Amino acid sequence: MKQKLLFLLFVLIFPKLLSAQKIDQDRISGTFFGYSFDRFVDKIERETSYVFYYDQEQLAQIKVSLVADEHTVEQLLRSVFQDTDFKFAIDSQKRIFITQGKAMRVRFPALAVSKDTLSPVADTLSPRAEEVDSRGDYAENRIWTVGQRASGAGDVKIEGRVLLEGKNEAVQGMSVVEPVTGKVTMTDENGYYTLALPRGLQHIRLQRFGLPVVQRHVNILGPGTLNIYLEEDYLSLGEVVVTSEQPKNISQVNMGSVELDINTIKKLPAVLGEVDVIRAILSTPGVKTVGEASVGFNVRGGAADQNLIMYNDATIFNPAHMFGIFSAFNSDLVEGVELYKAGAPMEYGGRLSSVLEVKGKYGNQEKIQGSGGIGLLTSRFSIDGPVSSKTTFAAGIRATYSDWLLGFLEEGSGFNNGRASFYDANLSIQHEIDSKNSLRLNAYQSGDSFRFERDTTFSYSNQNFNVGWTHRFNEDFTGDFVIGQDLYSFGIESNLMPENAFDFGFNLGQIHAKGKFDYRLSDSHQFTFGIGAVHFDLEPGFIRPGTEESTIARSDVSRERALETALFFGDKWEVNNRLSVDLGVRYVMYQFLGPTTVNLYPEGVLKTAETQTGTEVFEGGQIAQNYHGPEFRVFGRYILNNSTSLKAGFNNSRQHLHMVTNTAAISPTDTWKLSDPHLRPQLGQQVTLGLFKNLKKNTLEVSTEVYYRTMENLLDYRSGASLILNDNIERDVIRSEGKAYGMEFMIKKDVGRLNGWLSYTYSRSLIRSAPDEIGQKINNGNWYANNFDQPHDALLFLTYELTKRVSPSINANYSTGRPITLPIAKFSYQGAERIFFSDRNAHRIPDYFRVDFSVNIEGNHKSKKLAHSSWSLGIYNVLGRSNPYSAYFVPVNSVLQGYQLSIFAQPIPFVTYNFKF
């Protein structure tokens, strides 16, 4: 009997033991030559009982070439992943999990699982909840369970925030990707994301080009929230994991845009020791300035006043300090900048050339921290942190003691005996009411004062204030509302001689309000729509007697008011995995308002005092002139492969605010003018085409863009025109039209110890008097070069991480000299000598070339110390080249003598001590 029982047990158990031994000892034989990893996995899964879990895109570059002779799967995988960063783990159910960096921990209950779902026991792997915080040392290797189990088919919505551990700072611009389905979204400015995914085990990847890839394994039971926490120093990590996902420059639809975070900006050679966000933008293709000490910049052949500069919802009319040497932004309070040379977001308008969005900080939620710097020219200090568990702030101030620098300027420049000072101050506060509502407040003020002669002081200032409210109606629908005021003023004061003392100035103010809504209809359609309004209030110029003894008469240019309203709608349409389109329309309505008096002239005659027939008076609130029209933005992107995309686009725009100037750069004495019954709004159209290619496993970005622009109703000025305190400016302007075209090339490397970029731009910017303009035309109505036309522009920037603490940088910049009108002959007329000038802008000043060198030296990396410090030192204009800013002519002893003005004609050393705590 006993023997029979043993025999029966043997019969029942032995086949299972054989089967188990077969499972445990699955062996593979065969030749794998040039197999893709997917093909290799298919063969293994067909011939064994193993099931693989991995990111197909992540392993797309892996090729398998080996000969297997009764090898185990584990032996084959070790051979395949040798000398790579990929790890694998095999659990007791023969599930193989392939990850990057760290092997997944697989010590959890052994249960059968399909590729699309986990069994209920898998729910014990992480807390089951509607809201999950994914954080900790092994966050990438755990399986996080989200939502509550419920019946139903189809995708469920997963939402959450991406934050920095320890700081609770939102991470903007992270791509959140589910590689199997190909679904992707991006975190917004508050770190929020929403993604619709199937139930079951999903693999989510987060990436931002130039930074390590982050992954999460998620068991999705139903709708829920997954907050993902990244390492505290994630944004400053130097190592990069290269993936086969399309980086942002390939995948994004928009073209003609440049995005730089503050870490990239700080790698550039600091100009005179001060990190400068404007100068960082100038180092990219298609963006130029007319020379050193120039306020403003020119984008794709447009004038400096055609750029909209935004700082935390505020419009900055003068973005520079000290003649353009420094930008108006404290870099310690800036997170990053984005320049749109074409296809700006639909909520922005009012300028023809570009939108520069400077994103300021709102403070971290963990602790009070500060930073600052002490340099030879400037000092700065900023502080940020929590006020309460739901309120944060960021504040800072910067000032200069730069009078000594003016002594370095060239003798005879008129600057070297002057005095100059500036300051700027910022305050930003953010309060999170609850998970759906947040408030923000921003205040900014800057001021400049300088004197070149003993009796004259120039000053100008920006003042900005706004409040905003963000409301999340649901995971797909968000609204953002902002209202604020922006002021810019300029003044000249002279009081050395009481009888001639005067105060001159102008003021530009605007009150603005905007409501913007973002609605995600599906993975294929994301809508943006809303309304915005701006009320302009200008004092174009005034002069007052400076003392009681002054003989200067009081005079005021008529005040101007206008209302600009815009409705906008846009759709980000993902047609398929390769083709995406951004469609948008913005309808602009503009009213020039009373009280005002409009001069009347007959049709078809030149506007002069003699041809004026009368005036028309409009009372307060009356509409003196209406202008309206649509702005279209159509951009498309087609992905040729994982590393190449082709993009094209068209956009048109309208500008109702004009700068009244006859200089190439923005000058403090320039005033502004609104479109009125005589001055039409500027109109612009642009067509662009671009090819974007990544090389060397996405470590090199190469891009080429070509563009063609046309512009109408530009302002040029008649010879001898008086632009200051001119109440009849329509008599001295010539309506003109412009065209600009060019090609921009850039190769960029931001991976590894050596990084930087090389850019080259060929461009032309031409202008002519409008063919239907009445009266004498400039250059006989022929095309001539704009004041800022510089056909060739090249820039090389390199930085090298010599050690973790020492990073030298070099910057080399070349550009064609800008146009100039020269005297070419003299003649006698009625007994006096006269000068005959060339055609307008027919000649050029010498070319520009400058090399800068700087070194950033970090302090030691001890984590526990009172403050962390660093040094920035270097030389501006290493070669001491006397680059011309302009050329001018002065009669000396009845002979016209030519002079060349250079601003920085010698090397200028700088050193700055930086600290943070």
What is the CATH T-level topology of the largest domain? Answer: Maltoporin, Chain A
How many helical stretches? Answer: 7
Based on Cα principal axes, name the global outline.
Answer: elongated
Structural class: mainly beta
The total strand number stands at 57
Tell me roughly what share of residues is in helical segments.
Answer: under 10%
> Separation of termini?
84 Å
Give the DSSP E fraction (strand runs of 2 or more residues). Answer: over 45%
What does the average pLDDT come to?
83
Name the features:
about 900 residues; Maltoporin, Chain A; disordered N terminus; Phage tail protein beta-alpha-beta fold; hydrolase; transmembrane; 5-stranded mixed beta sheet; 22-stranded antiparallel β-barrel; Immunoglobulin-like; 7 helices
Description of the structure:
- It comes from Litoribacter ruber.
- It is a multi-pass membrane protein.
- Pfam families: CarbopepD_reg_2 (PF13715), Plug (PF07715).
- There is one protein chain.
- The chain is built from seven helices and 57 strands.
- The N and C termini lie far apart (84 Å).
- The chain is mainly beta and 917 residues long.
- The chain has a 22-stranded antiparallel barrel. Strands 7-13-12-9-10 form a five-stranded mixed β-sheet, with no helix packed on it. Strands 15-22-23-18-19 form a five-stranded mixed β-sheet.
- Helices cover 7% and strands 53% of the residues.
- The chain has three domains: 26-107, Phage tail protein beta-alpha-beta fold (3-Layer(bab) Sandwich); 113-245, Immunoglobulins (Immunoglobulin-like, Sandwich), CATH 2.60.40.10; 257-916, Beta Barrel (Maltoporin, Chain A), CATH 2.40.170.
